[in-house]
From TrEMBL:
Species whose genome carries this gene: Musa balbisiana
Presence of the UniProt keyword Signal in the record: yes
Protein name as annotated: Phytocyanin domain-containing protein
Signal in keyword set: yes
Gene3D superfamilies: Cupredoxins - blue copper proteins
UniProt GO MF annotations: electron transfer activity
Keywords annotated in UniProt: Signal
Lineage: Eukaryota, Viridiplantae, Streptophyta, Embryophyta, Tracheophyta
Length: 167
């Protein structure tokens, strides 16, 4: 009997524990503005507050190249919308991917004339765990990103299998 209990516990540990760890290793791609993309008229504060950004996640900016751009900037440049200084990176492809590589606050603006002042900007806090979300932003949000971690059905299946081994 002790060998069956050991086997049950070993199977449980081998199946369930890695699934629980997936929650922390799976990076998520977030389309900025969801279905609206990177565009005027989208509320990026509302958009950013819906999510908990963590190291390894990726922001995907979708927009018409030449009509918009993306500047990663300092907080001061974000607040002033003056890109004469404080620009950390520039993107202009229309399909930009920005990897969130460290736990910090990231600030983004559109540098097209009038867009930043019109609200096309946002800031996010990126955490080492999934405990923090959006940071103050300004602008006029929808859509979604895939949830993190293992699907609920897989967790249920694992628990059910473990329970059946008990009897």
């Amino acid at each position: 009997m002790p060998s069956i209990l050991f086997l049950r516990d070993a199977i449980f540990a081998l199946i369930l524990l890695p699934l629980m760890a997936v929650h922390h290793v799976v990076a998520t791609d977030y389309v900025v503005g969801d279905d609206d993309g990177w565009n005027t008229g989208t509320n990026y504060l509302t958009w950013s507050e819906k999510y908990n950004f963590t190291v390894g996640d990726v922001l995907v900016f979708r927009y018409l190249a030449g009509q918009h751009d993306v500047y990663q900037v300092t907080e001061e440049t974000y607040r002033s919308c003056n890109s004469s200084s404080g620009v950390l990176r520039r993107y202009a492809s229309g399909a930009d991917r920005v990897a969130l590589e460290e736990a910090t606050t990231y600030w983004f603006i559109c540098n097209t004339s009038g867009h930043c002042l019109g609200g096309m900007k946002f800031g996010i806090s990126v955490a080492n765990s999934s405990s923090q979300g959006g940071v103050e932003a300004q602008a006029p949000a929808q859509g979604g990103a895939a949830p993190r971690g293992a699907p609920a059905w897989l967790l249920g299946l694992t628990i059910g299998m473990w329970g059946s081994l008990c009897y």
